[in-house]
Amino acid sequence: FNQFCANFNFQCLSLLSIFGAYSMDVITATSFGVNIDSLNNPQDPFVEKTKKLLKVDFLDPLFLSITLFPFLTPIFEALNISMFPKDTTNFLKNSVKRMKESRLQDKQKHRVDFLQLMIDSQNSKETESHKVLSDLELMAQAIIFIFAGYETTSSILSFIMYELATHPDVQQKLHKEIDAALPNKTPATYDALVQMEYLEMVVNETLRLFPIAARLERVCKKDAEIKGVFIPKGVVVMIPTYVLHQDPKYWPEPEEFRPERFSKKNKDNIDPYTYLPFGIGPRNCIGMRFALMNMKLALAKILQNFSFKPCKETQIPVKLSPRGLLQPEKPIVLKVESRDGTISGA
Question: What residues form the annotated binding site?
Answer without folding.
Answer: 285
